[in-house]
Design a protein that fits this description.
Blueprint lengths: L2 E5 L2 E4 L4 E8 L4 E10 L6 E6 L5 E3 L7 E6 L4 E6 L8 E10 L4 E5 L3 E6 L1
Parallel strand pairs: 2-11
Antiparallel strand pairs: 1-3, 3-8, 4-5, 4-9, 5-6, 7-8, 9-10, 9-11
């Protein structure tokens, strides 16, 4: 069984920074594309950032230049560095990973981590 565990959320003032982590564990052969989503109260879940297995990244326009996604394949961990945070970044952040195991390939979600940005 594969588990994804996010950490690093918290309360920060506008203009501050946080670094989220998404650590994978289990019988993993390879972690393919990983995506960070967020969901604010009353809003739909939004794709924020993507990183492929080869390190190609993509971002939603609202976070470009402020957020950076990276990965440490040896540690099976993906990071989301969030700088210049704004109140509108407040949401629960989730990581989603396409995981290759010995006999199967499946999609997994973490439990989410709350990010709150005060003005």
């Amino acid at each position: 069984q594969v588990q994804l565990v996010e950490s690093g959320g918290g309360l920060v003032q506008a203009g501050g920074s946080l670094r989220l982590s998404c650590a994978a564990s289990g019988a993993i052969i390879r972690i393919n594309t990983v995506r960070w989503y967020r969901q604010a109260p009353g809003k739909q879940r939004e794709l924020v950032a993507t990183i492929t297995s080869s390190g190609v990244t993509n971002y939603v326009d609202s976070v470009k230049g402020r957020f950076t996604v990276s990965r440490d394949n040896a540690k099976k961990t993906v990071f989301l560095q969030m700088n210049s945070l704004k109140p509108e970044d407040t949401a629960v952040y989730y990581c989603n990973a396409d995981v290759q195991m010995v006999f199967t390939r499946a999609d997994y979600w973490g439990q989410g981590t709350q990010v709150t940005v005060s003005s």
